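STRUCTURE REQUEST FORM
Protein name: TetR/AcrR family transcriptional regulator
Source organism: Nonomuraea zeae
Requested output: structure tokens
Priority: standard
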Amino acid sequence: MSPEQRREMIVRAALPLVVEYGTSLTTAQVARAAGIGEGTIFRAFGDKDALLAACMAEALRPDDTLAHVASISLDQPLAERLIEAAEALRGYLARMGAVAGALAASGGFRRRGEAALRGAPARPDATQESAAGGPPVEGQGAQESRGAEEGQVPQEGGAPQEGREPQGGVDAQRLSGREASMAATRDVLVGLFEPEQDNLRLAPERLAEAFQFLVMAAGRGPSPLSSAELVDLFLHGAIKDGEEG
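Status: completed
Returned output:
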């Protein structure tokens, strides 16, 4: 097993523990889950902070999800394609939200989040938002979790800051990563609309972007729409045929 494969194996074993214990997890717990000696973790990552940063970086990566969406069969009806895409994207959002929420709740997100953004390989990072996968975290932890799920690293003293110009460093990296991931998600969604291009009201690119933001927002609230309900609303609107005022 190569060093990189060993690191990936350790991160896979650690992620469920991060969700359960946040920053209070121990390297001994991770070693047991991975079936390795504790010393192997320190040789692979140096310390627990580096391991947690790697877990956050892994949770932020949508690579597998985008590959899933890109592989959806175009032989299916458009509605079925979009339901499958929504399920894949929402699953990714739930996993990312669970990890970010656990780290935020235990007070360790800011440092690990910034380290993840600095140290992650050049692959698209988080762009979406969700807190699925567990009960909401109250107070500042909840704000940090939501910000993390939107691809933002919380600032000192409270919630993520929006509407300001990035000044380089982590800010610029966060913005460029968010834009890259938004674009990558939009691109794979475009392919789902293209077979119906002649029957669409808008260009596939516009519809993909609208659907992307609808999926991002659909996890909010106590009774979120199912993916089937979301797609039906997106394709057919809120008013039944023949009942428009």
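Reviewer notes: Residues 117-167 have pLDDT under 50 and may be disordered. The chain has one domain: 3-236.
Form closed.
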